[in-house]
């Protein structure tokens, strides 16, 4: 089974557990609050990955997401998730896109032909530099959408937890 299919199946399985819809977006700050810590990875009340930023220090996954975003996503989606003439501002999109939908779009890609204009998000389900860090990307963009993470490189971050090292080694095959 390809990684893209596995991620898509996971996203569809999580869909019933999805977070807020656009009608509930105003509650995003409360929904994004970290209530559980699993070895340095923070989760919200629904079990979705989220950020934790205290006294200007971001969690490892937010910092990693920043790095991965600026490695693979900013070319189309603009610096700090602010969008471009080519692709939408993900700092806005994550206000209404839930975790399973995010996983599905990144893994499978997406084609939008609204308003007589065609936009295509390529599938990244087979790109280890993206799919091994999907949660990191989601957490970073969620923090940007909530306004918790300012523009630019986070000046301070938590150390990389052992769980992140182990997951990276396992996913990247090293």
From TrEMBL:
Pfam families per the UniProt record, alphabetical: Cytochrome_CBB3
Annotated spans, Disordered: 147-174
InterPro entries: C-typ_cyt_methanol_metab-rel, Cyt_c-like_dom, Cyt_c-like_dom_sf
GO molecular-function terms, A-Z: electron transfer activity; heme binding; metal ion binding
Keywords on record: Heme, Iron, Metal-binding, Signal
PROSITE patterns noted in UniProt: CYTC
Signal sequence region: 1-25
Compositional bias annotation for Basic and acidic residues: 155-174
Name assigned to this protein: Putative cytochrome c protein
Species of the source: Mesorhizobium plurifarium
């Amino acid at each position: 089974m390809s990684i893209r299919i596995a991620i898509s199946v996971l996203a569809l399985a999580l869909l019933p557990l999805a977070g807020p819809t656009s009608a509930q977006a105003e509650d995003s700050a409360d929904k994004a609050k970290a209530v559980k810590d699993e070895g340095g990875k923070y989760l919200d009340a629904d079990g979705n990955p989220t950020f934790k930023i205290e006294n200007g220090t971001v969690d490892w996954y937010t910092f990693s997401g920043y790095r991965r975003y600026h490695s693979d996503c900013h070319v189309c989606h603009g610096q700090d998730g602010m969008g471009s003439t080519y692709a939408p501002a993900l700092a806005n999109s994550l206000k209404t896109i839930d975790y399973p939908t995010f996983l599905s779009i990144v893994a499978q890609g997406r084609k939008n032909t609204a308003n007589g204009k065609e936009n295509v998000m390529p599938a990244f389900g087979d790109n280890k530099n993206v799919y091994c860090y999907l949660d990191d990307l989601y957490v970073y963009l969620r923090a940007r959408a909530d306004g918790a993470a300012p523009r630019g490189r986070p000046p301070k971050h938590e150390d990389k937890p052992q769980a992140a090292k182990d997951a990276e080694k396992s996913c990247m095959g090293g």
